[in-house]
Structures are given as structure tokens and as C-alpha cells.
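Question: what's this shape?

___
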Amino acid sequence: MQVRLSASWTDPGGTLWAPGDTIDVDAVTLAELEEQGMVEEPEGQSGGSGETTTTSSSTSTAKPTDPKKIGPGPGAPPADSEEN
């Protein structure tokens, strides 16, 4: 899948990609990049899961999200529930 990066990224092969570069990634890598907020999606294009991931490429004073504070998402089961 072709995606446009919204931040610098080094792929597993060691290649450094700049913001705005379009790269071809597999579903697992795409999910990892989306979780980190590193992927831009063109307006009107939806993600494979039906949820839309948006990023802002404009310069602003907004602080970046701390990766440690990113959760599993709204579709994940509550952390305290276990099914046996």
C-alpha cells in the first residue's frame, strides 16, 4: 500500500525517509506507522478498517503526542476484561 509520511522515518532496511515521501508498505508496517501518527491520508480516502486516520502537516504550536500515551483504539476490548 502506498502511503505518504508526515514525519521522518527509517525503514527496517536502514533507509531514511523524509516527511512527504510516498512509500510502499505492508499492512503491519502501515498499522505501526498509523499508531505513531506518521502517515498522512488524502482527504476522502478511508483506511482499511473503516476508521479515518488524520494528521496535520501544518506548522502549529501543538505538542506531539507522547507514544507512551497512545492506546489500542476505540475498537479494543477494555483492559480489565478477559475471556476464558
